[in-house]
Specification:
By secondary structure, this protein is α+β, with helices and mostly antiparallel strands. It has helices at 14-34, 38-58, 62-73, 75-82, 84-109, 113-137, 151-154, 167-173, 213-224, 253-263; strands spanning 141-146, 159-164, 184-188, 191-197, 228-232, 239-243, 246-248.
Length: 264
Amino acid sequence: MDGIDYSLFSGFRLLDVIDIILVAIIIYYIYSLIRGTIAVNILIGVALFYGVYIVVKQMHMRLLTEIFGGFISVGSIALIVVFQQEIRRFLLHVGKNISMKRKKVFWSFLGNKKAIQKDLTEDLRPIVEACRSMSRTRTGALLVFSKYFDEEYYQSSGEYIDAHISKRLIESIFHKNSPLHDGALVIVDFKIMTASCVLPLSDSEDLPLQFGLRHRAAIGVTEISDAIAVIVSEETGEISFAKDGNVNMNVSPEELEQLLKDEL
């Protein structure tokens, strides 16, 4: 009577709605990972390429259809190669979220939470105090906290140290006359593993112009791994905290301690 053909919706199930919602969530999550990077431009180029292929196929332009079809037939492999960093980052995010939930359940069954927090405070004190001191003297520094030590990744570009953390050791490494002050200090399980590490720079196009190599390296390493990073600016003495490719600027030593507690 109202002119609407309800037969179109007769085969629509609740699972179809859930299916559409889950696909939308995955697409949004992937877009949030590649937003502001060069990968967005590549994805637009791929979409245009596929659009042209559909047009020439509908117009029965056989030669162009064969050429474009040949590229599309190996498109999945090409996309894996082109978007390998984004795929790696996506899988790291998924694995990290599952790991964090598992650890929360584990520690909830374990005993005294206050004792655990106290131990963390003792372990973090020399790091926080070193950052406070370097911020006061405007000594540039980059500290990376990794959950595991990838020898091929970190040791190949830095000096292997494997030393216990101390405020004086961190300050001496980043002293302007130290041969190890350039590059990153990598900390694993509250031990200094390597210094003067060369890290990959972020290729994000949305980074502020005032970001130097330390900030770009901190963002780069947190984009491709589950590491976190702390930066002390040589120009301003400002402390920053990087995680998942995002940076918290102008962090106080007290806020830094809490952020590290939450992550470590």
